[in-house]
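The data are passed on as follows:
___
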Amino acid sequence: MIHGPKQDFIAPLQVQATAMIPVFVLLWLWLVLRNLRKNQLSWAHQSVSALLLIYLNLLLSVTVFPFLIFPLGSPIHQLDFGRQTLLTEFDPFAFLNYQVSQNLGNLVMLAPLTLLAPLLVRRFQQFRNDLALGFLTSLSIECTQLAMNYFYLGNRVFDLSDLLLNTSGGLLGWLIFKLIQRWWPRLLNRLHVA
């Protein structure tokens, strides 16, 4: 539902994140075949890759999807773009007014990304690279939400406090990776980190 200035609009068609599952399956199969050709097939590495792709699909399902589709001739198309009641929230402390569950969700949302990425790619084992991955992923999500909201494809808001909480959660994932690196170094050897 999109909240317009005078009325609410309900999209008759919504595309869910399950539409992306074939894309992620094909991507995983491509990774398996590529590593098989290089004689670097490690089932531990492929399992973590699959886990990362499943996580990315779940991440998209809670941040970007569903896509709202309004057919031509819908009353919403008579409005100018960006006429929703709220497009942005630039207060970095807005999270103080959010529910605890929403704050916890935003805090842990990118932790799996910054935990799994250094298990697969050596470059992300450096703090600044992994933190940049978390920040840029969160910024991309927020900008996508803003663009989708502006063009009536979604109903989410660009929220600065979400960006800060997501990035902090990215730091949490990197710290968990560092604990794994310290306590289970053999796991990294099995993964054949690129």
Observations:
- The helical segments are 21-37, 43-63, 100-108, 111-120, 127-150, 160-183, 185-191.
- The beta strands are 2-3, 8-9, 13-15, 67-69, 88-89, 158-159.
